Amino acid sequence: MIPSEQKLLKLLSNNDVTFFIPPYQRNYEWTFDQCNVFLEDIKKTYNANINGSKVEHFFGTITYFSDETPFGQPNKLVLIDGQQRITTTMLFLVALRDTCQDEGVIKFINNKYLKNENATDDQNEYKIKLKQVETDWESYKNIILNEPLTNAQKDSAVYKNYQWFKMQLESMVQEGFDLNELISQGIDKFSVVTVELQPEKNIWENPQEIFESMNSLGKPLSLADLVRNYLLLGKTADTQTKYYNKYWLKIEKTIPKQVSNFIRDYMQAYLGKNCLKATDANHKALYAQFKSIFSTEEAEDLLKRLASDAELYSYIINDESCGDKKIDRYLSDFKILNLTTANSFLLSLLRYWKDDKFTSSDMAEILDAFEIYCCRRRFILGLTSAENKNFPLLVNYLDMLTSAKDKKLKMFEILSNQESALRLPNDNELMRVLENLNFYNFKYSKFYLALVEEKITKSRPDLTDDKLQKEHIMPQKLNDTWKEELGPNYEEIHQELVDTIGNITLIRHNQELGNKPFEEKKKIYINNAGLQIAKTMIVDKEQWNDVSIKERTKWLSKYIMDNVFPIPDSMRKTNNYKTKDKVGLSFLDLQLIGEDIHFFKDPSITAKVVSDTEVEFEGKIWKLSPLTREIYTRKGIVNNSGAYQGAWHWAYDGVRLGEIMY
Hints:
The chain is of the alpha+beta class. It contains 29 helices and 14 strands. The strands form three sheets. It has a six-stranded mixed sheet, with helices on both faces. Strand 10 and strand 11 form a beta hairpin. The longest helix has 19 residues, at 32-50.
């Protein structure tokens, strides 16, 4: 480890080196706020020096190690720490170049700091002093070379910060700043301590360990940053580049800005249980858990699976099509409902589907049951308790679902076997809430009415259509005509019923109907609304009063219950939940203690039941689910989630335990 102090610009002016940001580093992420601190430090240093004080500014440490380069090319210095600061400095220098009017200064900045005169080949990665990570490279390269950028490249932090610096410098010129002096009396006074690692000589100077121990001056490392570094660091430069370009770059491009959330949801899907949310405060703990889970995995095998599942994840969070219109429709609904707590369960479902464990028809049935459950429970009754902890547990039931003949019914049975706060609301509970709900101010009222329209006509209205509006049939403000329509109790009727579901409809119209008389509204509903829901149980009425509204409220509520979100007949009136102290029948309930059970797919593998919940296998006591995972691990066929509902993989007397225990 060789530390030395030197001026920042002198370091950057060395034509015998090219700085490389390795693929395991994060993208450039400094914000305008951080750029502003950097610029203010330059201005303070400049002001102090032109006023007679000899001031320097310490800009931190730059840690790197040397890597091999082709003969005749500058040395490659691979940055371990200082990427964000060096990149920001370069962007500031480019903005100086593009703001300055002095051709000599422009040429000096180009040749001294931005481009490498000693590079002899045609590769920009050596001709440009700082080679960015792949996702920033095209934007950065085009800025340096004054070439056009695509809209996507202009959306990068690299381009945005360059433009910000340029705008600030143009304002400073108008205020009388001399850009030449801003360099000589400002940024030229910035010093750094460079630390050169020599891992080939000293094994303790391991770049990965040093990188992880450093506290970056910029944003804290995200879970995605930490996992990427873990999987790439320690490999040769060529292997790092290969893995990054083949797998990690694909992940970042497939689910931009969502990689940390994806990794957390992937972990939940693998474990079949919940993990901490992927927030800045939790990233280190999640990273430690990630390393513990996948410590025995080969990096390339894990990267390959992550890249494959990132594509599945994009179907859940983006507008990417999975290739099946029905499945796309359900995933789109979940995005509208912002049902992110179910992402790990949906990811596992999609993986089972891609692995041909579920057909497309199976998926539609399972997703339909799950959407009905969520819409009844979460989006009508407002029950959101414990979802983040319990939805990941649904992964454990997927093997059970694969063996079920009626996938939709089995999914409903699983969902109706949750604890009270996670219950599947029955018809009585749903009807009671729908009839009294302030439906106009209900967040998903337009979506629900669109589902009703779809059930009636087989065509769903486009929710992004500006002409699609929620309409009060009895208006929010009553005029004399409406008061007469409602009768002497108009005030009480209006207060009680104005926002109920029976008084709300969808229309497709380019103007508000306001408090037009009912007869005029009916004509518009018939001729211009373009939707059946604006006609049914409305246009056949002679008057629109409390009787009409209550009739339509009952009809719409029942229609939603029976046709939009129907549940099996056996669950319509029952309490569809379990109590905390009763999960299902135990071995004791079934009088199996002391009996042998066998592995369903290989009856030669047996275990002895020794308690309510445990079995003995090879002299060791096991719970059934961990034992199931152990058996599959030995066979080399562990599923992607790594989670099993053990009772569905063991049998007694030829019958799966799951079929008699649940």
